[in-house]
Amino acid sequence: MICSISGEAPEEPVVSKKSGLLFEKRLIERHILDYEKCPVTGETLTMDDLVPIKTGKVVKPRPVQAASIPGMLGMFQNEWDALVLSAFASEQQLHTTRQELSHCLYQHDSACRVIARLKKELDETKTMLAHLERQAPMPASTAMIPNASPLSNGKRAAEDDELGPDGKKIRQGISARIITELTDCNAALSQQRKKRQIPSSLAPLDAVERYTQLNSYPLHKTNKAGILSIDIHQSKDLIATGGVDTNAVVFNRSLGEISSTLSGHSKKVTCVKFVADGELVVSGSADKTVRVWQGSENGNYDCKHILKDHTAEVQAVTVHATNNYFVTASLDNSWCFYELSSGLCLAQVEDSSPSEGYTSAAFHPDGLILGTGTSGAVVKIWDVKSQANVARFDGHVGAVTAISFSENGYFLATAAQDGVKLWDLRKLRNFRTFSPYDENTPTQSVEFDHSGSYLAIGGSDIRVYQVASVKAEWNCIKTFPDLSGTGKINSVRFGPDAKYIAVGSMDRNLRLFGLPGEDLEQES
Description:
about 525 residues, alpha+beta, Herpes Virus-1, Methylamine Dehydrogenase, Chain H, 4-stranded antiparallel β-sheet, rod-shaped
């Protein structure tokens, strides 16, 4: 009799009532306790189904292998081989289990990424839907309510982070409707320019020659001194300044006091611009962000949009003539075209030259041309409708720090380390160069006044030139010393009708130059 489990003669044999198979009692009882079924047939089996068999005591014969020392060594060798094979099988099983676990973790991570992607797409769809609802015609009762903003407490509600195959953000582009709007604006302004006349209220040449410092206003912090950018609201006579102290300041010149301090940037404010027909200010910073500030009735400005589309320091901001769009330029080799009301980046144009970040930018007065200056001493002219580079001006030394279009529509002034160059946009050539400073003193600012009659240059001092024709001489009619003592003029701007000049340098003070009598008359 042989046990069906061990294959050996049982010491206490039992037989199953159901299958009739013979088992060693201790083995089958342990198996029933663990599995409650027959190990051979798989049928349900209990202790009551076992019937003991009475046999005589039999002494088991010793196996043949155990009868000699060589036989026992052979047995030990076989057991050792079996143990090694069992260990190898266990290692193989462990390796397989680890691979299965790794695959499961990868699938879980992929599922989490898909879920996160779907949530982002859902948020973007909601944002686009809200934007379309804002663009829909409104009832007359709500027509005067400002456009709703996709921001909450000055933060963008959803980022435009849809990525294309190349890993870059997908932009919706400048639509045909917007191109039509830009073209109509261009046509209207070009028609007006043909009839343009120098306003009778413009400051005359002999008055500019007698300009002197009127006032000096400490607008920024002493421990982080420096005004990097200035802009003037021509109709309201407000002055905006951007400082090294991370703040932008809106200054009321007629009252001689600060209207609002715009705090929020984490690094120096490199550029500021007013929107001409609204209570809006756009600022760019070295913290890679652009902020749109909304003015209120009490004179304060609140952050309406925070735009984070650039990956390097924002160097320039310029507002389109429609006052509905603006462009930012950055050291990340790209410029962005934004819709002002929603803060959406409609297009981001990257430079093909990886080493040339943008250091300055300005719209042509008619709005269909954008001029940009690069850190590689190149001036580039862009067609805004197609975002194509249509012209390139070489010849400067050092980064192009400032760029300004004349109101006549065909003069362009650019500033760099080597001075100021004047370009004729009709023939795409340089017709005059000013080198007022030594080679170690860069020209930081250049600006035409709103009438196109005067040109101001800022470097180690401030110089004002009378604008002439391409062939005629451009005479320097006035030179102002740098009263800050820093030797670096960062920004120069003309006030309304060139009645005063605002200057920002590397100290904390905004300085105004003009005629004392004119200043008192305007304030009264």
